[in-house]
Amino acid sequence: MIKSELVQxxxxxxxxxYQRDVERIVGTIFDEIIEAMASGNRVELRxxxxxxxxxRDARMGRNPRTGESVSVDEKFVPFFxxxxxxxxxxxxx
Length: 93
Description:
Blueprint: H1 3-13, H2 19-38, E1 43-45, E2 49-56, E3 59-62, E4 69-72, E5 75-82, H3 84-90
Antiparallel strand pairs: 1-2, 2-5, 3-4
Helix pairs in contact: 1-2
């Protein structure tokens, strides 16, 4: 599902809301998740999962084309851990 499909589904299920308002709501939710993670905070949506940021240390990597060693800087990457309800649903429980 892509963002526009999510907006359309919410708009269809809530005919009293204008589609542009639903787009603004969904956009605000995503923006807040992004801002919280950029600040190093964890975002938990009960039953769905938790978004957090993990730090990857600097290391020596390898260029797959040439085999040459290259330095890879430390970086922060997003991490998602599924909630119990989502995990159960995926496993048919």
